[in-house]
Each structure stands twice: as C-alpha cells, then as structure tokens.
Amino acid sequence: AQSVAQPEDQVNVAEGNPLTVKCTYSVSGNPYLFWYVQYPNRGLQFLLKYITGDNLVKGSYGFEAEFNKSQTSFHLKKPSALVSDSALYFCAVRPLNKFYFGSGTKLNVKP
Amino acid sequence: GAVVSQHPSWVICKSGTSVKIECRSLDFQATTMFWYRQFPKQSLMLMATSNEGSKATYEQGVEKDKFLINHASLTLSTLTVTSAHPEDSSFYICSASVPGVRNTEAFFGQGTRLTVV
Question: Do A104 and B95 touch (CB under 8 A)?
Fold first, then answer.
C-alpha cells in the first residue's frame, strides 16, 4: 500500500533560522515524491519533486528537499526561514495516476 | 506551470439544495481530474477520479449519488453536491495533471469553500 507520513503536526522556527519539515513514505516501486504548500483557503502550490537523479532537489522560493532511499524519507528544508513561509505543507507520492498526501505540517515562522 | 481554475471560490447554500462546482484546465487537456475534500486542519481526502467521457471512479465510502461528477470535455469537470446538508460543508479542491506523463506534478484549483446552512 502507498502511504505518506508527516510526523509533525506543527513546526515552529524563528525567522532567519533553517527549517526542516519531515516526510517518510512507503511505496512500491520507484517513488515519485512531491512537496506542496497551501495558504489559507487556497489550493495547493507545487514546490518541488523528486523523480530520479540527484538526491538533493531544489525548488521554488528557496526550498529544497533531500531524498534518502535507505530511510525512505524526503524531508523539506530551507536554509533561512521567512515569516511569509508560514503555511501548511504537504508531502505526496504518486504511483501511477493518483497522488497520496501526508497529513500536512503547519509551519510557523516567527519574527 | 499549467493552470487549473476552480469556480466558485466560495458558496453558501441552504440545506436540501444542490451546488455545482466547476474545474477547468485552462492551458492543457486533462483526460483525468481529481476531486478532493479537505476538513479543517486535515489532509486532502481523494473523493473521486473524473475521467473524460466515462463514469467517474469513486473512492471507498464516497456516495456516488451524493457527489455527482461529470467530465464532459477535456477541459471541464464538475462536481455537484446534491441535497446538501450541513455536514457537507467543507473545502473542495480539484486537480489535474498532464495526461500520460507520470512524473509531472499535479496542478490544483484554488478550492471551493462550501457552507451549507
């Protein structure tokens, strides 16, 4: 069965500090992994994806994610958080045509 | 990236009435679209897969007669919530991805906030 886990409901970080939002997955075959961000009352915006190749993937707004096959993880990172990064973040896997989403992690960046 | 437009952004309706939500792919043809429901502070729950020209595929536990899906063209899918009740109040989101290319990201509509009073 395909599944995605985001172990943290909420992550708090001070502006300017690095941030990490965790994601682990369980999927048969090669994992296609994604990160999305959602602002209040809005749809999801694509941040980045891992398909193959380099384990470190760079995406929008300075975000990056590291794919770790042995730990089945795909953690989202940013070297220096901004207050405007505060939002809800979803990790997702895509086997075939469907997307499976994690439960979401609320990121709070405080000035 | 590709654009998916969802309309309306919000709607308030009376209990017992029906509400239609539209999802359009503006710059690509989407043979498949997806409808999600999101409860407050929760993840997206896949409701159904909308297939152009054929019947939608519903996830387990989703009432087909309650949530009618029509995908009449390659750029439009509609979700109709029939005989709405307050418990149907939620945030509904549609998405589409470029057909036949598995590794592309999904593109999401902006969502529809439905409130049934």
Answer: no
Rounded to the nearest integer, the mean pLDDT of chain B is 90
Test mutation, A97, A101, A107, chain B, max B CBs within 10 A: A97
β-bridge pairing B19-25 and A100-101:
unpaired
B87: left (phi over 0), alpha (psi -120 to 50) or beta: alpha
Residue B76, CA distances (Å) to B30, B71, B82, B110 in order: 8, 6, 19, 15
Contact A49, A64 (CB under 8 A): no
- Output the pLDDT for position B105: 82
Q: Do A44 and B91 touch (CB under 8 A)?
A: no
In the prediction, which pLDDT does A92 show?
Answer: 93
What digits encode the pLDDT tens for the residues A51-100? 988 999 999 999 999 999 999 999 999 999 999 999 999 999 987 778 88
| DSSP collapsed to 3 states, B49-98 | EEECCCCCEECCCCCCCCEEEEEEECCEEEEEECCCCHHHCEEEEEEECC
**What is the pLDDT at residue A97?**
73
Query: Alpha-carbon distance A50 to B26, whole Å?
Result: 26
Average pLDDT over residues B90-101: 85
